[in-house]
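Whether sequence alone determines local backbone shape is best considered at the level of individual chains. In the encoding step, the backbone of a single protein was reduced to a row of integers, each denoting a local shape. For completeness, the protein is quoted in full, as a sequence line and a line of structure tokens.
***
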Amino acid sequence: MNRHLNRTAHPTIKAICGLSAIIFCASHSLAADDKAAPKAQPQPAAIAQPAAPTPPVVAKPVAPTAPSVAKSSTAATPKSGPPTDQDMAEALIQKINKGSGDIVLRSSDLPAPYPPKPEVKPEQKVAAKPETKPEAKPTAAAKPEVTPPPPAPEIPWTYADGPGGPENWANLKKDNAVCAKGRMQSPININFDNAVKADLTPVVFEYRPFFLSIMDNGRTVEIIGAEGNTIFFNEKQYRLMSLDFHKPSEEAFNGERFEMSVHLVHQHFDGSQVIVAVMLSSSPKLFEAAKKSRWDTPPKESAVFQIVLNNVPLVKNQVVSPPNVAINPNQFLPENKSYFTYIGSLTEPPCTEGVTWIVMKNPVLVSAQQVHSFGQIYSNNARPLQMRGDRVIKESR
């Protein structure tokens, strides 16, 4: 067996013994034991009658007993480095004790140099839970929440004295500040002696009849304009947007107001506005302020104004379009179209300035009954006169 070991395992033993003397000594000690052990003598086979051959009895391999070599205390646990000489010696002795086959030392016979890496499982994404804020615990010192009072209701503007009246328009909204701070507000008193007579461009009225759409907006009676009704003034075209009525007239001539007035509101596509104001009167005496002569017979009813009175809606803020009822805005214009002009503002909030006013010098006659009838709807819907300031008023010749 020693020769067999030297022939088959000599390279391995030589390599291992070169590493340590302990391994060399252990291997030769085991070889000496193999020589000293008595070999079993073969027994002569008994001569017997031929019989049926019996299968040879194969001896079951006996598990080799572990050598009485104390195990290192570190063998039970994986080491954190490469195998030592002691580890290789112990592994070689176990191979020799097995006594089967070639003595070949493999890396699997040695203890693992490093602890096995734990199996890394893929991370499982966990849906993030919505963050819940801890409920605030009531404290003894916390005061109960006080609900703020609701905002005060908006006060609508009006022509009458009071919180919404003309003196308080600027206080109702920030957009109305110009009603108090503006320097070009309307209406104004037009004094004939202070007007500058000039050769002004005539106003070209291009009106035609249209079906009536009328509304009582809570402050005046308003007629909604229609397409195809325009004026040309200073080389610009303005569309007729609406007609509204005031009692008394908002404008004054030489300090005197007329019984009524109608405003024809026009607008250019760039947003600029031109308002044509026409006085309505039933008394010849009122024309004395405008230096007009008397007449003996009272004026007759205005046909176009009567159409307006006939169709005033019964419900406010509701547009009514009676079937087959048309009006012609030309009937609200005097025959003599001479005028005064100045730069003013809207006569209602937000009192926007930069409006061109064209005030016709001659009135349109209406009957006293028609003036009275309108007074049953609105007896006073005119803004007080505003300061003229240093504005220039021109009068066409």
